[in-house]
Amino acid sequence: MHELAITVIGPDRTGIVADVAEALAGVGANLTDSTMTRLRGHFTMTLICTGPSVVDARQALSALSGVVIEVREVSPESDKSDKGEPYVVSVHGADRLGIVAAVTRVVAAAGGNITDLSTRLTGALYVLIAEVDLPAGAADELAERLAVAAAELGVEVTLRRAESEIL
Amino acid sequence: MTSPIAWDGPEGNVLPVVTAPATVLSTVGDEVDPADPAVVQLAADLVATMRVSPGCVGLAAPQVGVGVQLFAVDVTGHAKAATTHGTFVLCNAKVIEASRWKAGREGCMSVPDLTGDVKRAGRVVVVATLPGTGEEVTVTTDAFEARALQHEIDHCAGKLFLDRVAGAHAIYQRKVYL
């Protein structure tokens, strides 16, 4: 059983998700985790699937025109548990070069693992929201370091515990 | 029945609304003197600006470029509203009780292109003073009016809904324009 990582990027159009999913289903690919979105008009899809070989998956997707496709074999996930305490970092301010680099470097230096991140540029406003797993007890110092980095960048930053309810 | 906190001040002027990343939106607002005629005029201007803005259910002073703790709210007729107090303006408001936390989608005139999922209390008790008389009031409300109050009190503290969104995929490009 092969486990494949596939990315598809191209101009957005109606039916592109169906085309990708159908092509993969045709070679027996079982989609496990996947995410897709539209970034400034570009369709982007990243997925993990099990089943076909790299060659078969690539051939199935080659019929799609106008998209960039990457298929590679990956090792099955070794450790499913997310370690650390979940936090959310919000950054917003005037767009400038290096916001993501600076903020994520500060998080990494605190031992924080970024598990999800999105950015949006709308007009002059740049927004970064990241979900981060932090080592126990690291949040207060990280908040201080983020405040320093944000002041240097001229943006606003908040760090807060991600909440989850168990029902 | 008219709400005991309903706004009955002078006619105001419509002011331009500032949008992020304006610094005033990220600045903690100063407390105001509710008896100051300038505060009463600003209260009137907030009401006037809110009324001409389609879909606007609340507007805080920082959104018109003034970094103080003053905001107008009116959720009358909104589908998600339960308790409503009509149009009112509060000075120096503080949440003293909050419960029934619930996520909901929020937008903001100062962040016109994005919306986000934000967890807010579904029931709040807020203490504040009324512009003009300076009367101290306690506002107990729920549902959409409670959400609007928390959103506006955040503005007065230099916070946007972007500072409270639930996660990396909890912001959305705004699609519906009223």
UniProtKB/TrEMBL annotation, chain A:
It comes from the Bacteria. InterPro entries: ACT-like_dom_sf (IPR045865), ACT_dom (IPR002912), UPF0237/GcvR_regulator (IPR050990). Residues 5-76, 88-164 form the ACT domain. Pfam families: ACT_6 (PF13740). This is Glycine cleavage system transcriptional repressor. It comes from Paractinoplanes brasiliensis.
From TrEMBL, chain B:
The keyword Transcription regulation does not apply. InterPro entries: Peptide_deformylase, Peptide_deformylase_sf. The active site is at 152. The keyword RNA-binding does not apply. Fe cation binds at residues 108, 151, 155. It holds the Pfam family Pep_deformylase. Its EC number is 3.5.1.88. Binds 1 Fe(2+) ion. It catalyses: N-terminal N-formyl-L-methionyl-[peptide] + H2O = N-terminal L-methionyl-[peptide] + formate. Its cofactor is Fe(2+). Keywords: Hydrolase, Iron, Metal-binding, Protein biosynthesis. Transmembrane segments: none annotated. It is an enzyme of class 3 (hydrolase). GO terms for molecular function: metal ion binding; peptide deformylase activity. GO terms for biological process: translation. Removes the formyl group from the N-terminal Met of newly synthesized proteins. Requires at least a dipeptide for an efficient rate of reaction. N-terminal L-methionine is a prerequisite for activity but the enzyme has broad specificity at other positions. Belongs to the polypeptide deformylase family. This is Peptide deformylase. It comes from Paractinoplanes brasiliensis. The gene is def.
